[in-house]
Amino acid sequence: MTKEIKVGSLEQVSPSDSLLNTVQSKKPITKAGNRRTKETNSTAQRSSQNATEDKHRTILIKSKTDDYLKTLATIYGTSVNELVNKALDDYVSRQLQDEDISSKIKLLKKITIKK
């Protein structure tokens, strides 16, 4: 019983070419053996006009509300983050329809605070 030992190729390949070939290959990246990485559903991603302008906020949500959000996210096949963003977007758009609030927002945007 003989064991076959594979030796690296004798071809001269630069590290940059090797990296480019790895990046350009369509194979899924594997982790720890032969397990594949988890693929995500692209429809669940938030469609933002400019993703670099998205902000992180930390908010405290009541436990019961969080349970409902998780259940609704499961039903709609989306994330809790997406549900919260949609609810906030709807709320803000309703507030902007109020002329009094809309004029106050425009006024506040004109004011510049120097630090």
TrEMBL record:
Compositionally biased region (Polar residues): 11-27, 40-51
Region (Disordered): 1-57
Protein name in the entry: Uncharacterized protein
Species annotation: Lactobacillus johnsonii ATCC 33200
